Write the structure tokens for this entry.
Amino acid sequence: MTPFPLKIVTPDGLLFDGEAEEILVRTTSGDVAILAGHINYVAPLGMGRATVVSGGNRRTAACIGGMLSVVDGAVTLVPTTFEWAEDIDLPRAEASLQRADKVLHDKTSSDTDLRLAEARLRRALVRKSVAGNL
Amino acid sequence: MAGVSTKEIKNRIRSMESTKQITKAMEMVAASKLRRAQAQVLNSRPYFEILYKTIQNITATNRELSSPYLLPQSEGGVLCIVIAGDRGLAGGYNSNVLKLAQQKLEGADAQVLPIGKKAVEFFRSRKIPAFTEAYADASDVSIGDCFSISKQVCKAFHSGKIHSVYVAYTNFESMLSQSPALMQLLPLTARQEPDGHVPAGIEYEPSSEEVFEAIIPEYLGGVLYGALCESRASEQAARRTAMDNATQNAEEMIADLSLKFNRARQAAITQEITEIVAGS
């Protein structure tokens, strides 16, 4: 397949800079796969799995928030958090899941606590599902 | 008489030496922290630049774009997010940025969101109301905290409680120079860059407005995190410089005092010899 330049930049630094053949991410309006020769395109990212195919290798990652942009054939992914499946701290995600679950089942939790817990729960679920099947 | 003064001088030298050890240690700690902070600054810059460029592209290509983030609001006060350090002994680092923020806030219907213990204390003693004091510990503020601050600020902005948002931080220019800066975050001013190459025909999904609305809080969080990284690196650099100076001063004083001590000792010896010679 024809490769295209791909950059993945998070606040923690440049995580990927090179050629890729395909990238699959979840935007707020659904899963999108980008191949070489895509038109100029910008979409905000949701929470979900991202798959990068580069040099025949397929790598998955948990990708949360931020945006995806394709400008003049160059693809830039600017997520808030992006963790390769093998880097995910599974015990931590598990603990976070438990904590969030506790808050959500507590009837005395305040509205903001519930919202935070829900967001945490969703992040933990994404991480778990991505790390679960490498 | 000479004996007393040599003892005094000796005591002073000793205390100066222990001070020097402390400042030397602080300098080395700051230098090692600075290396980490500097790497963080360099890592976070591309993220912020790309977000910024995208926003510029959207505002440049979509002329009819109307968003509350772009319009100057009439009511509400000013919110200033002030990023300072947790500790002193960093030269002018804290006082420079705090003074800059205070100038901005003077006379206005203003609130602050202090980050760092020094900022919290400063504004508390001047009775300027705080938006929240939840982020008093500058070294503990994470990227997640930046995003939650940005969400809270956006909410307050939408509800009309505040009409503009500034951030006061310290720019990390180099190891030797850091300058305090004030940046307007909201409302976003539509900047026209003369050489800005705008790629034509970008497809926004679901729509450019929605992309804009989704990206702004991310962008603010990113900017805040960037400012925080810059400030942290500046703090360590300022402390390193200040402590380096202090160490040098201590060394100078020790050299000075040693000279005095030796003179006094020699004077005492000479006097003794004179007395013995005179007596015989």
Summary: The first strand of chain A starts at residue 4 and ends at 10. The mean pLDDT of chain A is 87.
